[in-house]
Design goal:
By secondary structure, the chain is mostly helical. Helix content is about 40%, strand content about 0%. The radius of gyration is 31 Å and the shape is elongated.
């Protein structure tokens, strides 16, 4: 009457579904992390750091 599916066919189907799901998840992660699909503007460049004056070094070991 009805023919039962073999265990190998069921296992292969689950394997294909798993790889397809992993591929969709990886694609969604790649597209959402690049910023191109979020619509946000890129960050402005960093400003130049201020120039600091050199302070004299005090050696406390030689003091009495």
């Amino acid at each position: 009457m009805f023919r039962q599916r073999s265990l190998q066919t069921i296992t292969m189907k689950k394997l294909i579904q798993t790889f397809a799901l992993a591929g969709v998840a990886a694609t969604a992660l790649a597209l959402s992390s690049c910023g191109c699909s979020s619509g946000e503007a890129t960050a402005p460049p960093l400003r130049k750091l201020p120039d600091f004056k050199e302070l004299p070094t005090i050696d406390y070991a030689n003091e009495k």
